[in-house]
Amino acid sequence: MSNNNRNKLLIIVPQSTYLDDNFVFPPLGAMALKAHLDQAGIPCDLEDRFDQSKDYAPYSHFGYSVITPNYPEALRIRGILQQSCPQSRHIIGGPHVANYDVAPDGWDCIVRGDGQIPLERFVQGDPRKVYKRCDCLVQAQDLLAPWRENGFLQKYHYQLCGSYRTTTIMSAYGCPMSCAFCESARTKVRLKPVGLVEQELHDCLDCGFEAIMFFDDIFAINKKRVAEMTSLLAPLPLHFRCFVHARNFDDEMAHMLADAGCVEIGYGAEHAHQRILDNVNKKTTVQANYDVITTAHRHGIRVKSFLMVGLPGEDHETLAALEEFIATSGVDDFDLGIYYPYRGTHIRDHIDQYDLQLEALDGTLGFYKGKDGQAECCVRTSQLSSQDIRRAKNTLYRQYNKRFRADVPVFAESAVL
Q1: pTM score of the predicted model
Q2: Which residues fall within 8 angstroms of residue 82, CB to CB, at 6 or more apart?
Q3: Range 158-415: architecture per CATH
């Protein structure tokens, strides 16, 4: 296939219209794509703030990195560009495309896996319409450090513990766990080479960052990997936050993390009733969820728990257990969402096996938490209606998040999605 030097690609990250703030965490996936295309010598820019008043005529190809709640925005942007750049071609990838059929919407190419090679070939004229996950998997040793440029990153403003200017790194991809609610369950694990993570840490320091948020699910999945990562971090003037798993977090791991500069951990507790944890194949216990907090606090590490209501089997008893956990566990912060039944999860694909029924999904975007803490609810259980689940979420969020954020609004029930 011929390479037309006049071809130029724009990678577009549609804004998340449902969020309070679009510019907290930078788009690492799109930044990794740009790094690959830059190395391949393909003219490429990255757009994270689409503005239809701009002139996009210089671009012959447009690539979209899309999560499920952003898909309507991607379609809107493509419609604008098809009018202003009628000869352009459009390729789509990202988590949404892995499990949802977007072919009827008329994309020129669909990527259901890593986008590096498909994007390169697309710009060079490859006519292929669909790339399956197995067609384009990039091996760990072939991964590049994401493109990072200080001017681009300045607009993102996450501060770890409210104090440290922070950016994000992925030290690994995939997850070996089999949580029934998760799209990433049982996906191939790729650990980035230690040298590549070290390069990224120094890239972040060069951009003036004081802290790192490790965004991968499995940063602290085993002690050998934690030892490798903390040996890189300990000599550097960086604080950091990472995710842990309740099943294997103990004093030894907490000590390694704290000594290397970890000031906060997050973990998917999901719930505080054993029946719910078993229903979603979490492979952990309620006691372990409590123990994460006490263990981390012994080592001076703050803890944020991620919780959900509306999982299979939810009832008044399980909600009471969840409230007790929030009120008594000592957790420093928490997020509380309503379960959304994404395609590609075990629950959605085997819904008849669970105490869960779907209500109308039309008009929903598929986010766990939106503006002012609002959440969509399109599920019910045998004991709780969708209104019950929504009310429980709002009540818990109202009552207990005031401990952490003074600006949590008092919702009128009729105003909540």
Answers
A1: 0.92
A2: 88, 90
A3: Alpha-Beta Barrel (3.20)
